[in-house]
């Protein structure tokens, strides 16, 4: 299994490197990511060459809620590319049939932008392979912590770099010589993409910190003082400092919805934890309050929260044009509600439905609308249900798991998914490969927190009795695949 170890370290390195090349939001950048994931996949598969029976098929089946929708989504994109007779196409997509008929073509496809849809297909299969790699490779509590630590390190670097660029007053980026705004963008081009990425990393870091909190109460003041000193000198203090740095970076993006999404996700996650968290750590409430009060208000007041507040107050629907883009995009959805206009085709189709010149819009600034435009309403609902099920898995893990690592991970993932679902309602944060793949990893961790046994008989029995689709047999098979039964969680 040495190549599996190589693939896992390649996964960690990928998580850190993903946002560096402009958020992997350029063709050359996400093409390199596709190659990286392909090499990682071959390394992972080669570790099972001697005995394919050891390949964790059962583990993949427990993630059918994630892999099946992702695979079905890619198959739907393939169908959008298939050439069909114009007479058939008229029944499936009158909009596409009309365009192809005007060009005098006898055959046409559902998509109105073949190249963009092919690019979408390539990225989609990369995401699917990445999810499979994460499911297979992240198979112990220790590896879960390493993954969360990688996200924490990446987010801290992005926040520190973005903040320093603003504080130093640099006008051009250090590598690509791009003109920089007066707000933090990190290695991303768009401030809201950095804000979204930091929100995901903040939630992951919060989950890592919660997983290290003491559950039992101190028996004496001496023990409590010893825990305080130990906490100051332990890795928990570094995690806490990293969270503060990321909050500074998030505030300095001046992203209205990015800050709002993190604030709302922390409130919702904290409320859910107070209701469902099993054996709540005594410091959990203090941590949530500190994230909201100390970080957001005290630290934020120093680094520009007032400017974010000012931007929120000055926001007016009369000055915003994104709401008109959403309204006009609804007309595209009415034209192709089931099949969509083709993956990645929004910027090709939208000008034909624009009522006035609003400038160039290559995205809808609302992922729900853009997915419905490009892929149809059924495909969009399918992905939405997948995300809602991930939230349920997080609640299940917090309520039923005994492992501190699994429960802390579940809380962090719950906050991340809620924050993402809020933020994508006003921006296109799933378009950069770095954000999309990080979110997919969060979804994988939702399943890991709920489904991965840690080796104790009580834990396996609890999963078997309360988790639908699981059994003691499945859990024991998963243990034989390499989960360290005696490993501390």
List the helices and strands and how they pair.
Elements: H1 2-17, H2 27-46, H3 57-61, H4 64-81, E1 84-85, H5 86-92, H6 94-102, E2 107-108, H7 114-137, H8 141-168, H9 191-210, H10 221-233, H11 235-252, H12 256-276, H13 284-303, H14 305-314, H15 322-335, H16 346-353, H17 367-375, H18 377-400, H19 404-423, H20 433-451, H21 457-466, H22 472-480
Antiparallel strand pairs: 1-2
Helix pairs in contact: 1-2, 1-8, 2-7, 4-7, 4-18, 5-6, 7-20, 8-9, 8-11, 9-11, 9-12, 9-19, 9-20, 11-13, 12-13, 12-19, 15-17, 17-18, 18-19, 18-20, 19-20
What does this structure look like?
70% of the residues lie in helices and 1% in strands. The two termini are 22 Å apart. It has 22 helices and two strands. It has one domain (2-216, 236-315, 369-452). Residues 456-461 and 463-489 have low confidence and may be disordered. It has 489 residues and is mainly alpha-helical. Strands 1-2 form a two-stranded antiparallel ribbon. It has helices spanning 2-17, 27-46, 57-61, 64-81, 86-92, 94-102, 114-137, 141-168, 191-210, 221-233, 235-252, 256-276, 284-303, 305-314, 322-335, 346-353, 367-375, 377-400, 404-423, 433-451, 457-466, 472-480, and strands at 84-85, 107-108. This is O-antigen ligase family protein. One of its GO terms (cellular component) is membrane. InterPro entries: O-antigen_ligase-rel_domated (IPR007016), WaaL-like (IPR051533).
Task: Give a quick summary of the entry.
The chain is mainly α.
Highlighted features:
489 residues; mainly alpha; 2 strands; globular; disordered C terminus
Q: Give the overall form.
A: globular
Give start-end ranges of low-pLDDT stretches. Answer: 456-461, 463-489
Element order: H for helix, E for strand: HHHHEHHEHHHHHHHHHHHHHHHH
Span from first to last CA? 22 Å
Could you tell me the mean pLDDT?
A: 85
Largest sheet: 2 strands, antiparallel
Structural class: mainly alpha
Radius of gyration: 23 Å
Protein name: O-antigen ligase family protein
Keywords: Ligase, Membrane, Transmembrane, Transmembrane helix
InterPro entries: O-antigen_ligase-rel_domated, WaaL-like
Main location: membrane
